[in-house]
Design goal:
4 helices; single chain; alpha+beta
Length: 157
């Protein structure tokens, strides 16, 4: 039985979390950060490793592949405070889910594919950098992934 990429990494979450919190974080922190948020229904705090893309101006985007199989991103349908551990630095910010039908979502997905071409395999699309994201591909991604944008608070110090 084949194990999906996300299922594989989910099993490694405790190990990745430990590395990201340790002095060894540079091994992973170029691609992963720790996202801490409060469950909107349970009120429990969760900390999970997630991939991210820095957008500039204190903005980063986190995408959830195989989103229908995951729950964490649903906590950000409304703007919500988050804490992150980014490259060994604790930061706070506000997260919000991008509307999958929006141009902002499409731009986010396309920029992710341009920065990390391997995501096309993970997302199971045939992305052509010259042509860009087609309408069909954008619709497929809108059903399969979730994108959460985080506006970081200014760093202290």
């Amino acid at each position: 039985m084949a194990v999906s990429v996300d299922a594989f990494f989910t099993r490694l979450n405790p190990v990745m979390r430990a590395i990201l919190q340790s002095p060894l974080h540079p091994l992973l922190s170029r691609w992963l950060l720790l996202l801490t948020f409060t469950g909107r229904q349970s009120g429990r705090r969760f900390t999970i490793p997630v991939g991210y893309q820095l957008e500039g101006d204190g903005v980063l985007t986190v995408t959830a592949s195989e989103a229908p199989k995951k729950q964490w991103w649903k906590n950000h349908r409304e703007r919500a405070p988050v804490e992150i551990l980014l490259r060994g630095e604790k930061r706070t910010g506000t997260a919000r889910l991008l509307d999958p039908g929006s141009e902002e979502f499409r731009d986010c997905a396309e920029q992710t594919l341009r920065r990390v071409p391997a995501m096309a395999r993970v997302w199971d699309i045939d992305f052509d950098r010259e042509r860009g994201l087609t309408d069909v591909q954008a619709a497929t991604l809108a059903e399969g992934i979730a994108a959460v944008r985080v506006q970081l608070d200014p760093a202290l110090g």
